[in-house]
Amino acid sequence: MSRIAPLLKNTIKTQRLLPTKTTTIGVHPGTLGYQVQKLVVEQHCFKAPHQPALQNVALLFSHCNGFNKETMHPLIRRVVAGIHQQDQYKQTDLSVFAWDARSHGDSARLNEGTFLDSYSWFDHAMDTQQVITSFGLQKEYDAVIGVGHSFGASAMLLLEFLFPNSFSGICAIEPVMANGIESVEKRAKSPILSSLKRRDTWPNKMACYESLVSRPFWNTLHPEVLALYVNDALYETADGTVKLKTPKEQEYVSALVCIMRHTKTQFIPPSSDQHLYTVGYFGGATAYSSLRAVTIPLELVYADKSTYVTVDPLALPDLNPKHIRSTVIPGTHMVSNERPDAIVPHVIDVMDRALVNATKGQPKSKL
């Protein structure tokens, strides 16, 4: 039996973090779809081991493309435990905010039938701001630490560029960035095209698990992450089958592509109902250029087997030595879903640096 099957069958309920509060908010009012589209945000509160608490820190987690907030729970659990094991944080309350992008997970279920032809990474950046603003993170907490993966991380960088000091510090895991814009022909060959072809419906959750676990991409995920994906990324349809909450067309829209349908003689723009749009390349290039302007602690974490890295990760601090640190660890682009324990020290590092900046070394409670 696979190492993941027992988790899926017997202990999945103990793997998902139960939120302190679940809230539905509108998407950012400056983006198309603001009249009808929603975001689902979960708040998880973790009291300091030693009370009374002297400070209160918010951590905002943003998932990667194609996944959902629950798949970040193993990382969240380990980050919280790791922080509270540090002597300097024994009296620090932590409030974790995890949310689904408007086209993903529980947000996608609420927004079914409302998806538009123009969703971009800049929209996702503004939705990130909407979460920060709606919950008053900058006013209510001593620091706001962003922990983002892939396009979630890139959106945090875009937000910080557009609105400096939105965060006190950011741990960006495999942010997708590019030093320039590839030609349309090269972008049309992107491997993300396969997301339109992948299966999105199964007879039941176990059938889904069995179809995924034998595939190298899925089998490298941490057992808890895959179990949570199977349990929480699916919903039951009217005919009794289970289907991905995130429409595969929307996963494609959010990806790093600017696709033009290829023929032997020309590139023809796809029709709007195919949901193939100009999106990630310009956001990724902007995120890269924004690094020079960062004024907060930024920890970049890349994986040595990633196929999404088009820049030299270890050269990135040269763009802004005062604020940027970058490291490469074993893993693939999905490293935070493969080895969540390996991410913890980097979150703690950026939190250490951010709190020194925010309080000049002295705790200042906003409790």
UniProtKB/TrEMBL annotation:
Q: What's in the GO CC field?
A: membrane
What the entry lists under InterPro entries is as follows: AB_hydrolase_1, AB_hydrolase_fold, AB_hydrolase_sf
The record ties this protein, via Pfam families, to: Abhydrolase_6 (PF12697)
Which residues belong to any copy of the AB hydrolase-1 domain?
Answer: 59-344
Can you tell which superkingdom this protein's organism belongs to? Answer: Eukaryota
Which PANTHER family has this protein been placed in? HYDROLASE, PUTATIVE (AFU_ORTHOLOGUE AFUA_2G14860)-RELATED, MONOACYLGLYCEROL LIPASE
State the name under which the record lists this protein: AB hydrolase-1 domain-containing protein
